[in-house]
Amino acid sequence: MRSLGIAALVVVGAGLAGSQALAAEDERLRGEEERLLADPRYFSREWWSHTYQARGRYAEQLERWLAVFPQEQLLIVPSQETVVPAPGVEIVDYDTILRLHLAGK
Q1: Taking the CB of residue 45, how many other CB atoms lie within 10 A of it?
Q2: Which has more pLDDT, 59 or 84?
């Protein structure tokens, strides 16, 4: 049986445990959004690697898209409506796997 990962897998880096990484997110990202907005060519490793909570704030992400594109040009589909596994494909819940992994440490 093949597996299809549906949920985003958050890899906590820099030696911080999950709760520590969440607590450190604001400090790690300080100034990064401003740099990203100021320079479209800027790539933020901090934003890429440490936006655990920010990626879940969908309203903020939609506001950014709507600042560039009219609402009529966006199609927003809840993820539940897009997940239709093919026959023989098992859906893997990475959140549960990550919790089990962290509990074993």
Answers
A1: 8
A2: 59
Contact 14, 46 (CB under 8 A): no
Ramachandran category for residue 88: left, alpha or beta (phi over 0 → left; psi -120 to 50 → alpha): left
Contact 25, 50 (CB under 8 A): yes
Residue 5 in this model has a pLDDT that exceeds 50:
no
Domain tally, the chain: 1
Could you give the 3-state DSSP secondary structure of residue 67? helix
To the question of pTM greater than 0.85 for the whole model, the response is: no
Exposed/middle/buried for 58, CB within 10 Å: 0-12, 13-18, 19+?
exposed
> Could you tell me the residue range of the domain that residue 51 belongs to?
2-103
Place of tokens 């909570």: 53
Above 90 in pLDDT, residue 21? no
Q: Position 24: which residue type?
A: A
Indicate the burial class of 16 (C-beta count within 10 angstroms; 0-12, 13-18, 19 or more).
Answer: middle
